[in-house]
Every structure is written in C-alpha cells, then in structure tokens.
From TrEMBL:
Phylogenetic placement of the source organism: Eukaryota, Metazoa, Ecdysozoa, Arthropoda, Chelicerata
Gene name, Swiss-Prot/TrEMBL: ZNF182_6
Pfam families linked to this entry: zf-C2H2 (PF00096)
GO terms assigned for molecular function: DNA-binding transcription factor activity, RNA polymerase II-specific; RNA polymerase II transcription regulatory region sequence-specific DNA binding; zinc ion binding
Designated name of the protein: Zinc finger protein 182
Keyword presence, Repeat: yes
Amino acid sequence: NFNEHCLTHTNEKPYCDVCHKEFTRKGDLNAHYRTHTNEKPYSCDVCHKEFSRKSSLNEHYRIHTKEKPYSCDVCHKEFSRKGILNAHYRTHTNEKSYSCDVCHKEFFQKGSLNIHYRIHTKEKPYSCDVCHKEFSRKSSLKEHNRIHTKEKPYSCDVCHKEFSRKGILNAHYRTHTNGKSYSCDVCHKEFSLKSYLNVHYRTHAKEKPYSRDLGS
C-alpha cells in the first residue's frame, strides 16, 4: 500500500516490538507476530494441520496433491518447494554453505546443520508421548512411534514382507539378490546384514555372546 511504499524512500522499516526484528513489509511483520502469539489461523482441510502463514499452508497442500512444481535442470528431479530445490542444487556443485562452528563439519542445508548441533548440545526436543523416550530428530521419533502403532509402511515387492523402516527393507532386499555388503576383515567372509557380521566376529575373538561388539 501507499504507506509501505513511502517507507522505501525513508529507509524506515517496520519492526517487531517484542524482539525488534525488522521487516521490509508490514504483512511480513504481521505474520512474524504469530511466532510470538503461536496463532495459526490457516488450517489444512484434509488433515487439519494448522499454519501461521498462508504460503506455508499452500506448500503443505502439495503433500496431499503430490504436486512438485520445481524441477532441477541438471538431473530433472522434482520438488514440492523451491527451498528444497535450491538445497538440492548444491549436491551438483558440491557447495556446502553451512559449517558447524564446533567441529567444522559442512552441510548443504541450514536445517541439517541445526539438527547436527544437537549432537554437541545433547538436545532432544522430540519426545514419545507413549514411553517418553526422547529424540534429536523428528524423523527418528516418527520411526520410533511405529513400535507402538505396529505400522509397517515399507513393503518388499518380491515377497511382500512389511517393515517399519526403509533401512531394514533395504537390508532385506539383499536376501533376495544375494548381495552381501558387509565383509569380515579377518577371513573376508561376507554377510548381508551388519548384525550377522558382528556375531561372526566373535568366532575369531572366541568371545561369549554379547560380551562386546567388535563390529560396531
């Protein structure tokens, strides 16, 4: 509007009177206020998840519609959000713009760096409301919840056996393909699962079961 336009000439920026963050547009300031009030006026009419911004709701809808309007012009992989596409581009350029100031590990995405920091801070903000176990990642909590719900969303397309985690499904596939990815560095015998290799190591160490885990 006219008042917002006038601010572009005066270099005066509307700011939040709670945290003093500045904005170029009054609309962005109004949306920002909701981070303090926790107000979420926009609701998904499919799953009823609530959002503080209409743009966030519009992005969320793509989970339900499977719409992926952003495409990588290198490998043509498609994405539902432009921010994810921008982060994906860095996998082609090998650009890692975000660095941990504790251990200096580098990341493609700021979100990945934020999650990584929890290794150093020991922060576990996600808690299971059944057994109260805590996790540093939301995805880890989601996987854990399947212990309680018995949900197994990953299915083998060869034998149709179902699994709660994709990693377990990938390991299971090797039983069909005879793929053996884990090799003993003593006798070079190969195994399809790391847990099998760990048990095998005890035959070399002549250990009693569960005394210690040589393969970890």
